[in-house]
From TrEMBL:
Domain of life, source organism: Bacteria
EC code(s) of this entry: 2.5.1.10
Catalytic activity: isopentenyl diphosphate + (2E)-geranyl diphosphate = (2E,6E)-farnesyl diphosphate + diphosphate
Gene Ontology biological process: terpenoid biosynthetic process
One term under GO cellular component: cytoplasm
Gene3D superfamilies given in the database record: Farnesyl Diphosphate Synthase (1.10.600.10)
Needed co-factor(s): Mg(2+)
PANTHER family: FARNESYL DIPHOSPHATE SYNTHASE
Family: Belongs to the FPP/GGPP synthase family.
Official protein name in the record: Farnesyl diphosphate synthase
Gene Ontology MF term list: (2E,6E)-farnesyl diphosphate synthase activity; metal ion binding
UniProt keyword annotations, A-Z: Isoprene biosynthesis, Magnesium, Metal-binding, Transferase
Top EC class of this enzyme: transferase
Amino acid sequence: MDLRVALQNKVNLIDAALDKYLPSEKSAQNIIFDAMRYSVFAGGKRLRPILMLAASEFIGGNAKDVLPFACAVEMIHTYSLIHDDLPAMDNDDYRRGKLTNHKIYGEGMGILAGDGLLNYAFELMLKATLEKNENLQKKVLAMHEIAKASGVRGMIGGQVVDLMSENKQIDEETLDFIHNNKTAALIIAPIRVGAILAEANEEELIALTEFAKNIGLSFQIMDDILDIIGDEKKLGKKVGSDIENQKSTYPSIHGLDASIKKVNELFDKSVQALAPFGEKSTFFIQLSDYLVKREY
């Protein structure tokens, strides 16, 4: 099957599930539901839930069994973007070609929409676990993976150091910490969770984790590159914000050519991690090629 068709099929499945899971009832606080839905359905690529579904299928699991967890990860990712766009953080007016959440609903409601999505993600996973409680330990382990990856030792930790590093010259070690936690952690976790829920063996989990680490870092380096030479219309957001905010990035430390070379090296490592699995890894390899070689 063509990669784009396969991706669109997964996006359709995830979007239908998100529409089903996200609250929409009319009540005193219905504005928060509108704000949450606004950003969730603002045109995301659904990369993280797609990776979770793909990891489950790689092991031989059923995509429907991991959908609540996949949707939860997308909610957590969306909450992080809402908060990232706030004036106190990156102060962005557009995301994916649309006005950011706080530009539509105000800063206070933007904060609450992010909070609502984070909390609702765990409510959704817990509900799915309680309703169908076989493999309980694996589901609890999956939730722990997601909590850790999105918390102070993962995404939030990376955001903290990123915020503290603005207007400063930082070294490569600090930049790697930011990228590996702020971005890569929430790419690694969905892949591991999909594998865990599908009952992967140790060899499979190690290989998928190695693949995920390389893809997660290369994805963020490519974002750094696109912020310099990307097309605003294709990206759906302003380019040059890293320079404007005086952020250290791979290109600013190593230069553009070296950064592109690093992306290609990480891609090669990701392919090597799954090489022992042969044709079974075809979708992941095609997806990684699509992600790390996005159009400039």
